[in-house]
Amino acid sequence: MRKADTKGWNTRTRLVHEGVRRSQYGEVSEAIFLTQGFVYDTAEQAQQRFETPGDDEFIYARYGNPTVRMFEDRIAALEGAEDGFATASGMAAVNGALMSLLKAGDHVVSARALFGSCLYILENVLARFGVEITFVDGTDNDAWVAAIRPDTRVVFLESISNPTLEVIDIKAVSDAAHAVGATVVVDNVFATPIWSRALEMGADVVVYSTTKHIDGQGRCLGGVVVGTRDYIRKTLEPYLKHTGGAMSPFNAWVMLKGMETLDLRVRAMTTAATAIATALEGDARLSRVIFPHLASHPQHEVAKRMMDKGGTVLSLDLAGGQGAAFRFLNALQIVTISNNLGDAKSIITHPATTTHQRLSEEQRAELGITPGLVRLSIGIEDQDDLLADIRQALDAV
Fold first, then answer.
1. Which residues, other chains included, contact 95 with Cβ-Cβ below 8 Å and sequence gap of 6+?
2. Which candidate, 318, 336, 338, places its Cα nearest to that of 328?
3. In this predicted model, what pLDDT tens digit does every residue of 362-374 receive, in sequence order?
4. Helices marked H in the chain — which ranges?
5. Dist. CA 265–CA 282, nearest whole Å
6. What string of DSSP letters covers 186-230?
């Protein structure tokens, strides 16, 4: 098959055609190589492959697989990264990215506003193994500078925090981290690979839960880590292939199919999210409408610099607290109550009693996760229908 020159391709073209590895049959849709092992013609060939495997040579699905490699190549090309490694879930990606870089005695500086499972890895797993963690207000650039030390090994943050949608200045944080040689790891799920270019702003390693927008249709778990080839193959891969966090070939194929419509879906979802956030702002039944591209957002100027658009998620804080939030959720007819996001279906959750229920009341208060806060992930339904559904549910409150 002819080798395409992909340098001038735009996003939608890359999402359909990058990374394809066609077999001798010349299939149009990427093949699912649903195999865990590979055979060798000779003992000498087996020896050679274990010693120095080629780019199109595979050993075991925990190390790599042709379908998985197609997905890794495609997401790396989209991100402008040299390489990527796909994982079994988004949390496997976060865990692998951090654990592969750290050892006992290392120092990590992290934004304090994180998804509950990310907090668990930092506070419970890494701390248990002797890694020192310092948490800061991620929106305060001076706090990052003050916390980063000469011995800081890793800086970790969510580019947009879950669920209060704080936006962190990746460039400012990266400049401070790189001044001491620290590696910047960014969980970029809420920003999406369509609207954010974290690597261009200074991040060294970018992590996605591909369960979210990349699959985006509620089918499969998955995660991916992208970065330099040296980091992916010499630091991350040895950790992940020996600890078993690999993505399955079938899930990789689902992710490849999801990527074909990723740009279309994210654009439609973002257009609707922006319109809905704008329409709801000022509603007396809501104490806050949080959306990065609203002028009222505390980090609005940073969000505009970092993201072409405001993303697919908004948060609403109902003035009546948890009781009002529950009545609102229960009255919705189109929007589904679930704890996922980035789906074709609009999804809503109450973080204080679901995704962040493990935190103490004081921790939730510090993060701005109030009893009335709900996180709303906008899908691809008609935006007028969604807005009407939200308004009738507010009426029910």
1. 121, 125, 245
2. 318
3. 989 888 999 999 9
4. 11-17, 43-51, 66-79, 90-99, 116-120, 127-128, 141-147, 170-178, 192-195, 229-231, 237-243, 249-260, 262-280, 300-306, 321-331, 361-367, 383-396
5. 28
6. EE-TTTHHHHB-TTTTT-SEEEEETIIIII-SS----EEEEE-HH
- Check: CB of residue 277 under 8 Å from CB of residue 310: yes
Q: Fill in the DSSP letter of residue 1.
A: -
Exposed, middle or buried by CB within 10 Å (0-12, 13-18, 19+), for 362?
A: exposed
Question: Quick one: CA dihedral 137, 139, 141, 145, positive or negative?
Answer: positive
What's the pLDDT tens digit per position in 307-347? 999 999 999 999 999 999 999 999 999 999 999 999 999 99
CB count within 10 Å of CB 329 equals 18
Least confident piece of the model among 15-24, 133-142, 205-214: 15-24
CA dihedral sign of residues 328, 334, 338, 341? negative
What are 343-362's pLDDT values in tens digits?
Answer: 999 999 999 999 888 888 89
Instruction: Work out whether strand 223-227 and strand 83-87 pair parallel, antiparallel, or are unpaired.
Output: antiparallel
DSSP state of 60: B
| Architecture of the domain defined by 11-260 | 3-Layer(aba) Sandwich (3.40)
If you ran DSSP here, which 8-state letter would residue 30 be given? Answer: P
55-75 pLDDT, tens digit per residue, is 889 999 998 999 999 999 999
- Pick 262-396's CATH classification: 3.40.50.2000, 3.90.1150.10, 3.30.720.120, 3.40.50.460: 3.90.1150.10
Share of the chain above pLDDT 90, in %: 90
Residue 4: pLDDT above 80?
Answer: no
Nearest Cα neighbor of 258 from 222, 308, 311, 307 is 222
Provide the residue ranges of all domains of the chain, joining segments of one domain with +: 11-260, 262-396
Please calculate the CA angle 189-72-8 and round it to the nearest 5 degrees: 90
- Total residues belonging to the chain: 397
